[in-house]
Amino acid sequence: MSLAGVYTEWDPLEEIVVGTAVGSENRMVRETEDELDGLCEELRGLGVTVRRLPPQDPASPPAPPDRGADTALAYRPRDGLLTVGETVIQTPAVPGLPSLQSPACRMLLMEYFTSGSRWISAPPPVLTDVMYDPTAPAGERLRELEPVFDSDTVLRIGTDLLYLVSDSGNALGARWLQAALGERYTVHPCRGPHGSPHGDFAVVPLGPGLILVNPERVDAEHIPPFLRTWKRIVCPELVDPGPPDGAVHSSGWGGSNILVVRPGLVIVDRRQADLMRVLENNGIDVLPLQLTHARALGSGFHRVTVDVRRTGTLESYRF
Hints:
Layout: E1 13-18, H1 26-45, E2 49-52, E3 81-84, E4 87-90, H2 103-114, E5 118-121, H3 128-131, E6 154-157, E7 160-164, H4 171-181, E8 186-190, E9 203-207, E10 210-213, E11 231-234, E12 259-262, E13 265-269, H5 273-281, E14 285-289, H6 294-297, E15 305-310
Parallel strand pairs: 1-2, 4-5, 7-8, 10-11, 13-14
Antiparallel strand pairs: 1-15, 3-4, 6-7, 9-10, 12-13
């Protein structure tokens, strides 16, 4: 039986990979690792198989300006791995970001492959000096020279995949993904009214027919027609705790970077009281945890994890 299998963002979680902060700025490591350990403990208590990534190779290339140069990709595994159905994809990372090439990560991918999962790697970008233009407007910094995208640019909704064309994924990346997945899936390239580099900061599918939306980054004009009939929970204004120390590498909307464990249960930053209240008012239970240095390290609960297996089958959710 394939150990990999994910068809939606909300089906009950069975196996997940959690990153590590080791390799990031030293003053943040101990506290963040303790918080990640707490996340793992909670997930295991819910019956989820948890796998941990080792620290990133220190020889990995640095990130470009304003994209989290002092962080390790091993803290943000969703930047480099995407599971669609029983296929595990190593994504063509945005130039300047390291890829997940550690021996331990390779062994983990081999384990999924030998279990029956499909394992593919997108062509790594070679035009690294000219692909990323830091002087261009936000949302337009990736040139269309070869396919590149981070996996958190992609949201899975059964046979439909939302793909945010942004500073984390270009239109050629969407074309490559469509070609790699074939006719069973439809990849929807979406251009938002914002320059956010990540789709998971803008829309969070919570269950069939229900999404959490960022009011500053999403409107009906910029999402596929089938999602316009879904019930929307509007994300309230979030608390910006600011980084206790270090530079900021993520949006003030990072508090909406939540992890759906199953329909009706999500993991949310405990400091986001208004968001938790809104979710609970809509019948969703909340597990409050915390990543103190999320803004400095550029990641919330969704981005520091990769869901590898969820209960469910491939279905269409076009109501």
